[in-house]
Amino acid sequence: MSGAEAAALPTTDGPAAPESLRPRAHSQRGNVAMKVIARIRGLTEWEEGETEILTPDEDDPTAVIITQPVLGHRSRFSYDSVSTPWANESSADLFATFAPALLDDFQTGFNCSILAYGQTGSGRTRTMHGDVAEGSPGLISMIVADLFERVSKCPELKSKVNVSFVEMYNDKIFDLMVKKVDQMALRIREHRTLGPFVDGASLHDIASADQFEELRATACKRMRTAPTEISKSSSRSHTVVTLTWDTVEAADGAGKSAASKSRKMVLADLGGTGQGDGSALGVGNKSGSFKKKTPIKRQQEGTAFNKMLSSLGKVITQLSKRKSETDGTHISYRDSSLTFLLKDALGGNSKTVILATMSPAACNYEETLATMRFTEKSRKIMNCARVNKVKPSPQSPQEGSTMRPTSILSDDLVVGDPVAEEAMLTANKNAQESQHLPVEEGDTAQEAEEAKEKKASLKAEEAAKIKAEEEAKQKAEEEARALEEAKQKAEEEARLKAEEEAN
Q: Crossing angle for the helix pair 139-152 and 91-108, nearest 10 degrees?
C-alpha cells in the first residue's frame, strides 16, 4: 500500500465515535481513563459449525454478552466501543471510531498508545498490520498516513518524525531493522522525562507514509512466526512500533521563544494469549484432543511468552486497584521487558487505547473469556497524561539531526541505575570524541589496549552474571506459575461442578 493510497483512506467518515472517544478540549495535564475497544471477527474456515458464544446486547451497543457453551451461563462486558461482524465494520470503520481523536491528542503533544491484545488467530495482527494478500491496510498504516497528512497541513512547524521497530522474543528485545543473523539482545533504559526506551534500537527518519511502509515491510518479514492450525503465521513474539514526532514552532517577532514538543506513539501487537499450550502451538482440534506433540522449542517460546503476559496481567491488576498515582501501591513494571517498555502506556504518561480482538467460536470460550476479563480490569486504570514540552536546542535543527533533548543519555537518566551510569560515561566519551578531545583512558597505546581488554572482560563477567540471575528467576517464576495455574484450574472445576449441581 502506498502512502497516497493510505492517505486517501477515510479518516472522518464511517460510524460516529462514541461520546467517550470523541475529541475534547485539551488540558496540559490530567488523569484520563484507558479506553478499551472490542473487535470481534467472524467464524473462520476451521471454526465452521461451531456455536457462536458472543452476542450483542440489544439495549447497549457498547456491551457484549458471552455464553458458556455447556451450561449456558451468560456474562456481560462493557466497552468504550464495539466493532463486530454483525455490523459489517471494516478496518477503516474501526479507524474512524477512535483514531482521529487519538491523533488529535498526539498532535497536541500527548504521548499515545494502542495495545492490541487477544488470542492467537483472533485477528489481532491483521487488524494492526492489515492483509497483504487482500491489499487491505491495517491500523498502523492508516495512522501513519493520517499523521503525515497532519504534518503537511502545519507548514509553520519544523517537524521531524522517526520510527523504531522492535520485538520481544523469549523476554529479550531485538531490533527488527537488523538482520536476524546480526541481531543482539538489547536493554531497556529509562529517561526521566521521555520514559523507558530501548537502548541501541535504530531510529529511522521518515518523511512520508511510503518510506514508513518500506521499513514496516522489512520488519514484518523478520518477525518470528510459526504455522499453527489456528493461524498460518502465528506470532512467536510481541512487536512494538514506536513513532516519535518532534516539533518546533517558529519564534514570533515579539521575543517569544520557540515552543518545542516531543511525543511518541506506541503501537504494540501483543502476541496471542494461550501460547503455552496446544491451543496455540500444537493446537487441539474441535473436540479438544491434540493432533501432534508440541515441539520443545515451541514449549520454551510459550513459557517465555506466558511469562510476559502473566507479568502484564499482574500489572493491570495492580493498576486497577490503585486509588491514585501517589497512594504507594507497588507496580511490578520491572518483572518483564514487556511491562517495563510499556510503563508509560500502562498507568503512566500516555493516552492509551487497548484493542481487544476476540473469536466468537465456542471452542475458544476460555481464551475469549480471559480476554474480556483482562479488558474489564483495564478500563479501571487511570493514566496521567501531559503535553510533552522540551527545551529547544540553542542551535537550529539540521537535516538528519534529532530535536530530542541532548541529555537523553546523561543527567536525565534515572539516578542510581548502574546501567544509567555506564550510559553517562559512554555519552561523555562520545561527546569528547565528537569535539576531537583526547579520551582519558591512558596516555599510551599500550595502556589504552589494556583498558579495552579489561573493559571487555568486565562486560563478559557482567553478562554471565545477568544470564545466571535471569535463568534462576525464570525457573522460580515457572514453578510459581504452574502452582497458580493448577490452583485456578481446580477452582474453575469446582465452580462449574457447583453450577451444574445447582441447575
A: 40
Query: C-alpha 338: how far from its chain's center?
Result: 8
Neighbour count for residue 181 (Cβ, 10 Å): 5
Residue 201, C-alpha cell as written in the block: 534500537
| Cβ(291)–Cβ(466) below 8 Å | no
Please name which of 247, 297, 244 lies closest in space to residue 275, comparing C-alpha atoms.
Answer: 297
Pairing of strands 382-386, 204-206: unpaired
Cα distance between residue 258 and residue 246, in whole Å: 13
Identify the CA nearest to 350 among candidates 394, 381, 372.
381
pLDDT in tens, 391-414: 755 443 333 333 343 333 333 444
In this prediction, the residues of the chain whose per-residue pLDDT falls under 70 are 1-29, 226-234, 251-258, 273-294, 392-455, 503
Q: Which of 54, 96, 115 is nearest to 358 (CA)?
A: 54
Torsion angles phi and psi, residue 145, rounded to 5: -60, -45
Q: 284: which strand partners?
A: 290
Q: At 168, list the grid cell.
A: 520481544
Is 55 in contact with 64 (CB distance < 8 Å)?
A: yes
Chain centre to alpha carbon of residue 315: 14
Backbone angles phi, psi at 13, to 5 degrees: -75, 175
Angle between helices 209-222 and 139-152 (to 10 degrees): 160
User: What gap in Å lies between CA 306 and CA 293, rounded to an integer?
Assistant: 19
Return d(Cα 350, Cα 35) in angstroms, integer.
11
pLDDT digits (tens, 9 = 90+) for 403-456: 343 333 333 444 334 444 454 445 444 433 433 333 333 334 555 566 666 667
Rounded Cα distance between 167 and 354, Å, is 19
What SS3 class is residue 90? coil
**pTM, whole model, 2 decimals?**
0.72
In 170-282, the DSSP E strands lie at: 172-175, 187-191, 195-199, 204-206, 225-226, 234-235, 238-249, 260-273
CA distances from 294 to 276, 279, 302, 320, 436 (A): 10, 10, 10, 35, 57
